[in-house]
């Protein structure tokens, strides 16, 4: 009998440990489901840190080498299902109705936050003894998910000597990456919708429909990586397009399967990432270079946290004010409580920040430079602190500022959706066109609902719907443009035999 090598045995031990911990995270998260403080992600992070401490104690304070943060594992395998499902489950009606505000926050807001964090770090860190850092290092610290485009643009330029020409080239590169990545995701989603609509895989097997949807989604991500674009943006918009067209072209059984399959993959990968980050944070080699200056390490982390909070506030509140100037109805304006919630909820930094920091400051997960070690350990501290502290306070803050509707109304909103996204308030009307009898529940609404329906607001969503119904859905399918099919003939015959 062959003897298992030491490396293979270590891998088996690591896999067993991770599977057991993932199960523990799901079970504990379920038990704490009604808790207003905890969720599965925070639970996984805390369990990961605790496991890392136990491993260090067992190994006598030495590095166990059980885990080394892998960018390929993160970007190629774990991140795509999470981002795709975010696009697949997005509430498209609200997304397009608020498209200009989302774009304003996502592009202009990210640039504002990027500038404050980067140049603030450059100003503070140069006065501290943390080692040598180049300009590109200051421009690459603590990026969030939407800043991956900026990160890629920075890496493609020699910015040791910044001048107006380099600046405008950088802005052009950022815009190119942003729009090219978006277009690629839209094309991939439309291609999957057209293929399934024309070839109609469901007449033979729904398994093929599900396989095509999954593979096309992953192909969009890898094509974006191949062309050096932002794969996150690509797969996100691919998810939006596939939920709008492709999902309605498949059989009912395929819809149910894909909806739960994508959600399950995203859920599992998210827990895995937070568990992974928590355990990796206790890798002793990362902290060895900064162990002689604990005060400096705390100051660097505190400065980064402060810059993140200031940078987000610098665009959330001013851009919300600008957005409100374009909204006529007071019910469409972003209130101050909503602005505070948007500001607070975006302060958390996660695995994307760690992955980008590792990309910039390490080689194969390790570093030998003091300045780089400070950036890695400070990023870990920011991620742990923001996820646990800010994350624990997010739910209570939302319940305080934005209390949930009354029980009767909430039940009417939580019925089983007929699409991947959740249903929202159906214009406060029932099937006969009359308003829902809400009794004494005080629900904000326009003074005349019929007037609102008769004169719809001419925003991005309004014009998009007209174009979509006239040109896009007849070609690519979608709700109301394809016949309803419960399942493939094989499945139908199987049900008949039963």
Automatic annotation (TrEMBL):
It comes from the Eukaryota. This is Uncharacterized protein. It comes from Rhododendron molle. The lineage of its organism: Eukaryota, Viridiplantae, Streptophyta, Embryophyta, Tracheophyta.
């Amino acid at each position: 009998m062959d003897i298992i090598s030491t490396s293979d045995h270590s891998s088996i031990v690591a896999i067993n440990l991770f599977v057991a911990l993932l199960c523990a995270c799901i079970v504990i998260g379920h038990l704490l489901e009604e808790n207003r403080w905890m969720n599965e992600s925070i639970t996984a992070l805390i369990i990961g840190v605790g496991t890392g401490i136990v491993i260090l104690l067992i190994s006598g304070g030495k590095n166990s080498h059980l885990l080394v943060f892998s960018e390929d594992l993160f970007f190629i395998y774990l991140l795509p299902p999470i981002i795709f499902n975010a696009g697949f489950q997005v509430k498209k009606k609200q997304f397009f109705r608020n498209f200009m505000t989302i774009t304003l926050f996502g592009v202009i807001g990210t640039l504002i936050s990027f500038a404050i964090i980067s140049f603030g770090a450059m100003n503070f860190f140069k006065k501290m003894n943390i080692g040598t850092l180049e300009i590109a290092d200051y421009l690459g610290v603590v990026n969030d998910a939407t800043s991956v485009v900026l990160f890629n643009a920075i890496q493609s330029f020699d910015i040791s000597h910044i001048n107006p020409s380099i600046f405008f080239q950088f802005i052009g590169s950022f815009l190119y990456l942003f729009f090219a990545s978006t277009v690629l995701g839209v094309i991939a989603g439309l291609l999957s919708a057209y293929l399934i609509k024309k070839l109609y895989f469901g007449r033979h097997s729904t398994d093929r429909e599900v396989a095509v949807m999954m593979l096309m989604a992953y192909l969009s991500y890898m094509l974006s990586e191949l062309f050096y674009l932002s794969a996150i943006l690509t797969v996100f918009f691919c998810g939006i397009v596939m939920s709008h067209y492709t999902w309605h072209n498949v059989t009912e059984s395929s819809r149910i399967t894909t909806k739960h399959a994508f959600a399950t993959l995203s859920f599992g990968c998210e827990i895995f990432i937070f568990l992974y980050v928590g355990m990796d944070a206790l890798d002793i080699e990362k902290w060895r270079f900064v162990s002689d200056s604990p005060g400096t390490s705390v100051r660097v982390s505190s400065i980064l946290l402060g810059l993140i909070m200031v940078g987000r506030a610098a665009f959330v509140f001013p851009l919300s004010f600008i957005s409100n100037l374009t909204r006529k109805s007071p019910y469409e304006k972003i209130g101050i409580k909503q602005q505070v919630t948007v500001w607070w909820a975006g302060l958390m930094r996660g695995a994307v920040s760690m992955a980008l920091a590792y990309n910039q400051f390490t080689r194969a997960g390790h570093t030998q430079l003091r300045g780089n070690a400070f950036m890695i350990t400070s990023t870990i501290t920011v991620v742990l602190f923001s996820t646990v502290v800010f994350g624990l306070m997010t739910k209570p803050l939302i319940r305080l500022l934005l209390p949930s509707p009354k029980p009767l109304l909430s039940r009417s909103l939580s019925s089983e959706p007929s699409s991947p996204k959740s249903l929202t308030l159906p214009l406060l009307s029932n099937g006969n066109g009359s308003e829902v009898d809400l009794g004494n529940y005080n629900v904000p609404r326009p003074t005349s609902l019929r007037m609102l329906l008769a004169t719809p607001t001419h925003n991005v969503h309004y014009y998009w719907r007209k174009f979509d119904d006239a040109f896009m859905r007849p070609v690519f399918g979608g709700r109301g443009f394809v016949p309803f099919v419960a399942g493939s003939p094989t499945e139908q015959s199987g049900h008949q035999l039963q």
